[in-house]
Amino acid sequence: MAGVSHYTLDLPQFDSAPRLLIVVAPYYKDIADNLVAGARGVAEACGAYVDLIEVPGALEVPSAIAMAARMADYDGFVALGCVIRGETTHYETVCNDSSRGLTLMGLEGICIGNGILTVETYEQAAVRADPADQNKGGGAAAAALHLISLSRKWARRTKGIGFKPTQSFRVAGDTDGSSQA
């Protein structure tokens, strides 16, 4: 239900600026522009460095993020776009497959905020994208930043498990004792 307030976490704080890539499908350009404005506003409030790329549609957003995660140096990603229900089943395909792609990457540890709107009408999209209203672009950026914060927190910790030899040992076939752990 539009307009209902909900709890929002405080934005994380960072010792060093996170690098975010916003990937947007500007199929509905004015909606996309509002989503980007909201995402940039939240990222700037956290001191994040932001790059922006455009892709043709929502189905290309996960592919672009997957490529950037492999080939570029970003801490997290913000997926933005808008899918409005039409007369065919294409809507379900685009909604489900773009979401599934992003979710699978997230389960692999990639920090992604999903701001791809899936709505029935243009009017619903306009309210959700507006930075002064529901600000779903800002929410997606906040989600990515929270995940980056968690990944940085956990990357500094060691679990203290595993094999840690305290002395040298001989490996089969090693005659001079030069193998060391």
Automatic annotation (TrEMBL):
(2S)-2-hydroxy-3-oxobutyl phosphate binds at residues 87-88, 128. Pfam families: DMRL_synthase. 5-amino-6-(D-ribitylamino)uracil binds at residues 27, 58-60, 82-84, 114. The gene is ribH. It comes from the Bacteria. It catalyses: (2S)-2-hydroxy-3-oxobutyl phosphate + 5-amino-6-(D-ribitylamino)uracil = 6,7-dimethyl-8-(1-D-ribityl)lumazine + phosphate + 2 H2O + H(+). Its EC number is 2.5.1.78. InterPro entries: LS (IPR034964), LS/RS (IPR002180), LS/RS_sf (IPR036467). One of its GO terms (biological process) is riboflavin biosynthetic process. Keywords: Riboflavin biosynthesis, Transferase. Catalyzes the formation of 6,7-dimethyl-8-ribityllumazine by condensation of 5-amino-6-(D-ribitylamino)uracil with 3,4-dihydroxy-2-butanone 4-phosphate. This is the penultimate step in the biosynthesis of riboflavin. SUPFAM superfamilies: Lumazine synthase. HAMAP family: Lumazine_synth. This is 6,7-dimethyl-8-ribityllumazine synthase. Pathway: Cofactor biosynthesis; riboflavin biosynthesis; riboflavin from 2-hydroxy-3-oxobutyl phosphate and 5-amino-6-(D-ribitylamino)uracil: step 1/2. GO terms for cellular component: cytosol; riboflavin synthase complex. Belongs to the DMRL synthase family. The active site is at residue 90. GO terms for molecular function: 6,7-dimethyl-8-ribityllumazine synthase activity.
